[in-house]
Amino acid sequence: MTTNSESAVTRSPMDMLRTIFSGRMLVAFVMGFSCGLPLLLTGSVLQAWMREEGVDLSVIGLFALVGLPYTLKFLWAPILDRFALPLFGRRRGWLLLAQLSLMLSLLGFSFTSPSQNPWLLAFVAMMVTFFSASQDIVVDAYRREDLADRELGLGSSMYVNGYRLGMLLAGGGGLILADHMPFSVVYQLMAISVLVGVVTTLLAREPEVAEGTPKTLRSAVIDPFVEYFQRDGAIMFLAFILLYKLGDTMASAITTPFYLDLGFSKTEIGAVVKLFGFWATIAGGFIGGLFILRMGINRALWLFGFLQMASTFGFVLLAHIGHEVAAMAAVVAFENFTGGMGTAAFVGFMGALTDKRFTATQYALLSSLMGVPRVIASAPTGLMAEMMGWSGFFIFCTLIALPGLWILNRFAPLRGSKS
User: Fold this and answer.
1) Which CATH architecture group holds 4-411?
2) Among 103, 91, 97, CA closest to 37
3) Membrane topology per the record (predicted)?
């Protein structure tokens, strides 16, 4: 079984350079930044503001529910596939509306008080996540429709790296700014930052509309499911999405307690993870995108899958080495580097699975499914580490990646994969 990603592989160095420095890649990067910016503004930054205002911890915990739109975005994705607004086209029209609404919602934080109006704050936060999730839906669809199949891997890596930079600005930058100005002003500045995405949307080209797009809301809801599950290997692809990064996800879910148990200080952990981890992930995403552009998504999935297993096994070695900062830095850098590569290929693969007639709906469904292992499989990791010990647990995380590679061999055999 092949995917759309197999249609072409870039081989000429000049062709690669033209693709890397094309306006399409810049748009993918900036749109990623615009999508990553709001995420922590309703997470860690909002939690810091509420705690500073003396809000009870139980209330702060309940605010995690404002993130539900990110999980449920597939519910209204069919509307964005079915209808087009009068101006700017099928994708850019919805994207501009989502971004402007997101700006207004972020500005709404300026008129709330966590201690005096927690319910109003919750409403504003829910509006931010709703319009942020809507932006994610349209950007994912836009990227799939704007990029050629061979460009999806690099485009996805650009998007993911932009997303992480947006999170860094909002999370790290927002908290730093909050030490020097009120949180209300911080949110105003973050709202202004959304203008980067607005300007990009206005200047970007509108993708061509594929033939056979839904003409009724019913077809927009039902046809994406029917089209997908009529394919050969439909269930197999879903299983692959669930399992490919399972070991990597489980291992990274509980690394902080692991480092602490080895005797690393919180300062050492923070410095190494931020300094080595973040930039290694950025580098891995970009270099992974170049590999995909050169060899195609399927072969890249094989290479990155084995590298992810090797990086997970690095935690086993660290468990035996113990409290050694240089060893920790090497393990963290390698794990984040390979994780960035794997994510680039993974996101590109999901994009290649979608039918351009139903891009928004199918991608929203697949990306929601992608988050299942992060939530469900991460839950028992603490118990497993207690029962197996750290070395045994990370050996298990290394081996649990094999089922995903076995499924990959079903539709892209290691020896026969040309893309």
Assistant:
1) Up-down Bundle (1.20)
2) 103
3) Multi-pass membrane protein
